[in-house]
Amino acid sequence: MYNLHNTNYSIRYHIWRGHSGPRTGPTCSTKPYSVQAGYRKITVENLDVIGREAIFSVHLPKIKIDGDSSVFAKKLANLTHGFAGAHIANVCNEAALIAARLEAESVTMKHFENAVDRVVCGLEKKDKVINKAERKINVYHEAGHAVMGWFLNHSEPPLKVTITPRKTQLLGFTQNSKESSLMTKEQLLDMTCMTLGGRASEEVMLGTISTGAHDDLAKVTKWTYAQVTIYGFSSKIGLVSFPKNENGYDFIKPYSSTTNNIIDEEMRDLVQKAYQRTLEVVKKHKYDIVKVAELLMEKETVNREMLVEVLGQRGFELDN
Fold it and tell me: What's the whole-model pTM score?
């Protein structure tokens, strides 16, 4: 930061410890201008895959790993979408600790994969008692996500599916691989359908629905609202955008009650159409869902290679 005093200036650097999320320094440091000094706020964006690979390349040489550090860095960068530098350091530390607990001679990729899961979802809760009915619902829920992601053209193919419970109350999750800064209407639709795949699988395969889809429904609601009110994807609302600020709208919504009602109707219509499409895909691939569910029952965690074995290679790949 540069403090300007008439024609003379001095350079002063303010350094705050790195965090995994946004932080704000002293109030004066974020002001664009003051009477005696000028300040500039520098925003550090989320790391892309190249940045994550570079940070892994810094940490991995300090660990005794079972392989080439450059190969590990590349693979781990693809497994850690959305991670900041602090997360990456935690993954490396956790992987080393896991290997030490198992008395392994070196840290393997399996140790790193377990470390990623721990950083993302929390500690495994192997002592959690889940009855057979809950386990079956959970298995078919996650299998529905995985199969939808596998067979939809514009969806994110799953990297891993697991039903291992976590201390964060998470009973399972499906990890995907694609990261995009720009998404098409078709991609958002397939992403919505994939997210609804768990609920649809419960309904079609088990004839019932559970509360397990609450987080999925929250995501779908957020994405659909953005399509209608921000991205201009709705023909009824038109090419207008009403983005919220950090605290929501200031006092009143920047549109009329009539427009508000249209937004509600359009959102419900889009979600319902996406769900009907999801049900059709689930019914078409019932046998594939059963195969993935049976594999999850046996293994608890299924990776990409296992999915290829039971579902076959995808008939298409996402555009780079």
Answer: 0.73
